Amino acid sequence: MVQKTKIIVQKKNYTLRTWQTEDAASLAQYLNNKNIWNNCRDGLPYPYSQEDANVFLAMVQAKENIHDFCIEVNGEAVGNIGFIPATDVERFSAEVGYWIGEPFWNQGIVTDALKKAINYYFEHTDKIRVFAVVFEHNSPSMRVLEKVGFTKVGIMQKAIFKNDNFMNAHYYELIK
């Protein structure tokens, strides 16, 4: 089955689009980075291999609606914005997570792409709230969320255990 790429937004410095099978090599290249992994949940493998990329892409493409957005720069898949819909009494909420390859940090790409992805997600789902959990040492990610319009709603003490250490979790939300 040939999948058609859906472009959500095309800007001068990046494209926000759906993931494609052909993205596996660049996905593995950019996500195989300890500095990125240090700010992600342990469910993300490290080192990150081509096989890990293939598994991720198959999972994304099997989903019924778009919940994962590829950030493309110069023809390469270099980042992701993903939504995890909540369930039960929280069914109108979704958690958002994102990353971009280290060569593209501090260029404003994630901030702009996150705004566009959230707008798209709100328009195409019944979600009214998006939230994010940020590790205490990741102040750049906190700034991204604040620039997008998120509000910090709390800090959970020692809520995260990563790299053999407990750390605080900063919780942010954005209401439609």
Describe this structure in words.
The protein has 176 residues and is of the alpha+beta class. It is 29% helix and 35% strand. The chain is built from 5 helices and 8 strands, in the order E-E-H-H-H-E-E-E-H-E-H-E-E. The protein has helices at 24-31, 34-37, 50-62, 109-124, 139-148; strands at 7-10, 15-17, 68-73, 76-85, 93-100, 129-135, 151-162, 165-175. The chain has an 8-stranded mixed beta sheet with strand order 1-2-3-4-5-6-8-7, with helices on both faces. Strand 4 and strand 5 (93-100) form a beta hairpin. Helix 1 (24-31) crosses helix 3 and helix 4 packs across helix 5 (139-148). The longest helix has 16 residues, at 109-124. The radius of gyration is 16 Å and the shape is globular.
How would you summarize what this structure contains?
The chain has five helices and eight strands. It is an alpha+beta fold and 176 residues long.
